[in-house]
């Protein structure tokens, strides 16, 4: 599966949802997540994210994000079309430690 990681927090560009063939993105207040049991591993969302927040879970160190995507995709609502990002999205792009600072 692919997972959404820390770089999405406070950016939420939502380009990813437009290209997903199975509509498996879910929206929280500060970030999106992928439902790993719905993702078909097509990979088309990865290059679409301006924040480079989407990665295959085969990369090292992503266990925390796989768990987080699994947990919150079961709780948050499905999002299937792109929407405007937060006004300050670009200011948060590439920022460090966004999970500790903003995740709620
Ligand atoms: Fe959707 Fe494909 Fe991305 Fe999985 S890899 S979330 S199926 S676009
Ligand atoms: Fe987040 Fe990137 Fe999608 S910032 S909402 S994963 S396009």
Automatic annotation (TrEMBL):
Q: Write out the biased-composition intervals (Basic and acidic residues).
A: 85-103
State the source organism's domain of life. Bacteria
Task: Show where the 4Fe-4S ferredoxin-type domain sits.
Answer: 1-29, 30-59
UniProt xrefs under Pfam families:
DUF3470 (PF11953), Fer4 (PF00037)
Disordered: annotated segments? 77-104
Q: Does the keyword Iron apply?
A: yes
List required co-factors: [4Fe-4S] cluster; [3Fe-4S] cluster
Q: Which UniProt keywords apply?
A: 3Fe-4S, 4Fe-4S, Electron transport, Iron, Iron-sulfur, Metal-binding, Repeat, Transport
Which InterPro entries does the protein's record reference?
4Fe4S_Fe-S-bd, 4Fe4S_Fe_S_CS, 7Fe_ferredoxin, Fd_C, FdxA, RnfB_subfamily
Q: Outline what the protein does.
A: Ferredoxins are iron-sulfur proteins that transfer electrons in a wide variety of metabolic reactions.
Record-linked NCBIfam families = FdxA_Protbact
What name is this protein filed under?
A: Ferredoxin
What species was this sequence derived from? Erythrobacter fulvus
């Amino acid at each position: 599966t692919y997972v959404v990681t820390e770089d999405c927090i406070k950016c939420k560009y939502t380009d990813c949802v437009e290209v997903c063939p199975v509509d498996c993105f879910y929206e929280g207040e500060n970030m999106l997540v992928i439902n790993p049991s719905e993702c078909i591993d097509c990979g088309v969302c990865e290059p679409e994210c301006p924040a480079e927040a989407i990665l295959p879970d085969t990369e090292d160190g992503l266990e925390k994000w796989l768990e987080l995507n699994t947990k919150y995709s079961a709780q948050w609502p499905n999002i299937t079309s792109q929407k405007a990002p937060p006004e300050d999205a670009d200011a948060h792009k590439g920022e460090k430690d966004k999970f500790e600072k903003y995740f709620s």
